[in-house]
Amino acid sequence: MIEFENVTKTYSDGTTAIENISFSVEGGTTTVLVGPSGCGKTTTMKLVNRLEDPTDGVVYVDGTDNRDLDEIELRRNTGYVIQEIGLFDHRTVGENIATVPELVGWDDERIDERVAELIDLMGLSRDFRDQYPMELSGGQRQRVGVARALAADPEVLLMDEPFGALDPITRERLQNEFLDIQERIDTTILFVTHDINEALKMGDRIAIFDVGEVVQYDTPREILANPKSEFVEDFIGEDRSFKQLDITPVTEVMGPPDGEYASVIDGSDTDATTAADGGSGYEGKALAPDDSVKNALDRLLRSDTPALPVVENGEVIGVVADEHIRASFGQRSDAQRGAA
After folding, report:
1. How many CB atoms lie under 10 A from the CB of residue 64?
2. What are phi and psi of 160, to 5 degrees?
3. Three-class DSSP category at 59
């Protein structure tokens, strides 16, 4: 766990970057720090591994004031990914990933296994291991940067605008891949971005900053449903309902597989892989349980079928039709208007 307790950071020129912020990050979760440029989110993140120290207040790491921890050990146990990536051009991909394990004294066999594991985890070919960073695309280099940060099994991973320099298509692909990776690692993540859509997608919780203050700290759903100030509401934007579609899994709106739309799936192949690969098992592509409602709506609009099956482990567990989406989000919109 990481805890910020009444933390203020003022620089020697009198500039206050953050003032009296307090919030806690649960172990194994991702907290996104989001806000406009100059609001203090990167400064806050740097306090964790002591690239900055607070002027007042305390930053606790697993219950200990991080100023009482050995600075070198703290940083070696904290992965760090930045927008510029910062790979060593004279070292191969494998050597880059092995940097921290070498520093902490892992043996060659353990390093070799970890490098291979991370190359696979990042969806890279083993052939990349002996290539140099300049031979890779921007997205590939960013994957290597994340692999290097995870190499020594850090308890904490800091990510500062990690996908900000990538084109929109590559950025979305890496976001999706990283969400899959998050489920397989037990690492506490602080993720800095200026993009509210990225924050809503990536975070278990979100800290919204405004001029050095945390103005709301909550789950993505709660922030969308109940913004606590006009600033938060403006920062989210007017399309709150549409954003909710993107963070809501289809399992929350689907109907039963044996209901009104049973004929859509009756007698068809229920293998999710076949369906997702464009097989003939369904008129439209099958949905996975963690697919978003936005994704389901997009597929429905592009298909001729009235409903799409939700498939888990080869079995249809539900069906999503346009009316399911409208019923769920129509009720939510009414509730929001009533609370306003």
Report:
1. 12
2. -110, 105
3. strand
Burial of 109 (0-12, 13-18, 19+ CB in 10 A): exposed
Give phi and psi for 107, each to the nearest 5.
-80, 160
**Which positions ≥6 away from 220 have C-beta within 8 Å?**
199, 200, 203, 205, 206, 247
pLDDT given at position 116: 93
The one-letter amino acid at 161: E
C-alpha count within 13 angstroms, C-beta hemisphere, residue 296: 33
Are the beta carbons of 257 and 317 closer than 8 angstroms?
A: yes
**Separation CA 259–CA 306 (nearest Å):** 13
Tens digit of each residue's pLDDT (9 = 90 or more) over 192-243: 999 999 999 999 999 999 999 999 999 999 999 899 999 999 999 877 777 8
Q: Are 320 and 254 in contact (CB under 8 A)?
A: yes
In this structure, are residues 97 and 151 in contact, taking their beta carbons and an 8 Å threshold?
yes
Q: How confident is the model at residue 257 (pLDDT cuts 50, 70, 90)?
A: confident
133 alpha-carbon distance from chain centroid: 24
DSSP, residue by residue, 193-209: ES-HHHHHHH-SEEEEE
pLDDT per residue over 74-113, tens digit each? 998 899 888 766 789 999 999 999 999 998 899 999 999 9
C-alpha to C-alpha distance for 195 and 180, rounded to whole angstroms? 20
